[in-house]
Amino acid sequence: MEQQTKTAAGSEEVVLLRDWVVALILMAIPVVGFIMILVWSFSAGTNVNLRNFARASLIVVSIVLFLYVILFVLIGMAASSYTY
Where along the chain do its domains lie? Predict the structure, then answer.
């Protein structure tokens, strides 16, 4: 049985399971993962499915970093107002 790599005539190729596994492993490496998310998000040659996944990951990372910054600012303000 042949593996189908097209969803419909003229549409984007399906991303294989091994490609998703490689993408997730690369994303788990701290600096390399962030660089690969940027490359996949803004590269025209990237598969549409992988590009959308990278963009969603970039949005989630941005939201989490924003929340961390707010949390550290609040903790810093609370710690600086506390005196003995």
Answer: 17-81
